[in-house]
Amino acid sequence: MTPVLRARLSWLHRWTALVAGWIVFAIFFTGTLSLFDAELTRWMQPESAEILPEQPLSDQALEHAMQILRDDERQGKPSAFLSLPSARDPLLHIFRYDGHALIGPALNPRDGRLIATRQTEGGAFFFNFHYTLRLPSPWGEYLVALTTFFLSLLILSGVLLHLSRLIPDYFTLRLHAATPRCLLDLHVLTGTAMLPFHIMITWTGLFLLGNIAFPLISHDAAPLPPAVVEHHHLPTFLLAPLVHKTERLTGNAVTYILFSAEHIAIYSLRPDSLSIHDTPMTFDNVTGQAVAPPPPDRVERAEALLTGLHMAHTMGPVLRWLWFLGGLAATVMVASGLVFHTARRRASARQLTSPRLERLNAGIMSGLVFASLAYLWTNRLIPYDWKDRSMLEITTLFVLWGSTALLAFGLPRAVLWSVPLALTALAGLGIPLLDLLTGPSHLWRHSLFLSVDAVCALTGLAALSGALWMRPRT
Question: What transmembrane ranges does the database entry give (predicted)?
Fold first, then answer.
């Protein structure tokens, strides 16, 4: 590679990161959390802990859910769909899309009894933020799609810059070197060690966002979010026989059921699959007779594979944890690259806007991690019956994130990183104690709650280590 080409690639890599880096960090961080969105929602609704994943769905519970839907229809409520129990979420849900997340009551799959869970978006907040940044549609999707395009440029230019040292970079991390050198090692290591994952997740995300913003594939019944259709279209016959027929013909458990004016679409997904292949069994809304849907073409099969690879919703726990580690590596890659840029400018005495960028780095990146942990704290501390508690949780997250960013501009440079990281450490390490004090006594017998508590505590330990490591270097 000629020096001129290297200089141009370095310029492209540096300035693309400055333009899109903070948004890329937020996208990667929230996307990583959204891999376990259902588990986070269950943690944030501890009242549902009494329902075990192995509990089967009864015909009585399904019919009770249908009766609730019919009552809602008579009252003029927007259309809804049913989400059936699964290994990740053992509850029977009646979901409506509110513009940001799927909300609605939860039912006991054994008898259809309503479970009084606290109002929260739970992990769905991170899923929605990941591809909309919580901005109005379609502007959020447009911005994330543009940012993902910048990310593809970052990965391409980064690979070309380090192509000659791709293998040695797998084994290079000098923690005791000067700050810029150590940060560069960390940036390159997390980039090269999970490079296939970074490329896959970027290009599948770009495809999915492009398909949301500029749809290329039309579907007769798109599952998420369900469209609001006219009322008085719910079937009056029993739904359970159709569910059993679908499971018998497909060999897979039913995951959700959608209703339209003419048809009932019953979806089943193959577990532990890379592809979200969700062609439904369709039944007539009046007679209950099966209606043969058109077979999926190659484009739709490719879309199902790309969607499954990106979202990992149908993957088994091992692959989903591997995707989680890949997301963490991507998040660290972006963070270390942004901090490296300001550290190098400071070391070379090229100040200009470097102090402001350094404070923005500390406030935005550590602030998002701290605010996300505080989101869990807020969920447990707000009174159960507080009005609009779900919106209060989200508002608190954004207020704390913004406050941490502002705090970074008022802190002495010597504690610029150590203070927000110390707050993050306290929030993370305190989650297990919070869970013990505010949850029912039997929570600690559930592996899901223990897993969330453990990950939060590990995040706190990582933040504490970062605070101790950064303080003498700032």
Answer: 12-36, 142-163, 184-209, 321-340, 360-378, 390-409, 414-434, 446-470
What span, in angstroms and rounded, lies between the C-alpha atoms of 267 and 280? 4
Q: Which residues on neighbouring strands pair with residue 265, listed in sequence order?
A: 258, 282
345: tokens are 């400018």
Give strand ranges (E) for 152-229: none
Specify the 3-state DSSP secondary structure of 92: strand
Decide: helix, strand or coil at residue 397.
helix
Which value, in Å, is the radius of gyration of the alpha carbons in the chain? 24
The domain locations on the chain are 1-36+123-208+309-350, 53-120+221-293, 354-474
CB within 8 A of 105, min separation 6: which ones? Answer: 68, 93, 94, 114, 115
Query: What does the pLDDT read at residue 304?
Result: 87
Structure token pair of residue 274:
């890379």
Give yes or no for a contact between 415 and 433, defined as CB atoms under 8 angstroms apart: no
- Name the region of 79 (left: φ>0; alpha: ψ -120 to 50; beta: rest): beta
What's 94's DSSP letter? E
Residue carrying structure tokens 């290591």: 189
pLDDT score at 230:
47
Contact 314, 273 (CB under 8 A): yes
Nearest Cα residue to 235 out of 287, 280, 282, 281: 287
> Could you give the CA distance from residue 362 to residue 91 in angstroms, rounded to a whole number?
40
Which bin fits 104, alpha (ψ -120 to 50), beta or left (φ > 0)?
left
**Do the beta carbons of residue 206 and residue 27 sit within 8 Å?**
no
pLDDT at 473: 59
Kindly write down the DSSP assignment for every residue of 327-343, as one continuous string: HHHHHHHHHHHHHHHHH
Q: Which two tokens stand for residue 38?
A: 């259902």
Alpha-carbon distances, residue 306 vs 133, 217, 300, 426 (angstroms)? 22, 13, 10, 38
CA distances from 342 to 139, 279, 303, 365, 414 (A): 30, 49, 40, 14, 15
Check if the beta carbon of residue 407 is closer than 8 Å to that of residue 419. Answer: yes
N residues, the chain: 474
Q: What is the mean pLDDT of each successive set of 10 residues along the chain, which is 474 residues long?
A: 86 91 98 96 90 87 94 88 92 88 90 92 95 92 94 93 69 64 86 93 91 54 44 79 92 90 88 79 88 77 90 91 97 95 72 77 96 97 91 97 96 91 97 88 78 97 90 62
Residues 290 and 55: their CA atoms lie apart, in Å, by: 28
Q: Report how far apart the first and last C-alpha atoms of the chain are (Å, whole number).
A: 35
Q: What CA–CA distance (Å, rounded) separates 246 from 297? A: 21
Cα-based angle 405, 406, 408 (whole degrees, multiple of 5):
70
Choose among 170, 196, 155: nearest CA to 24: 155
CA angle 356, 360, 363 (to 5 degrees): 135
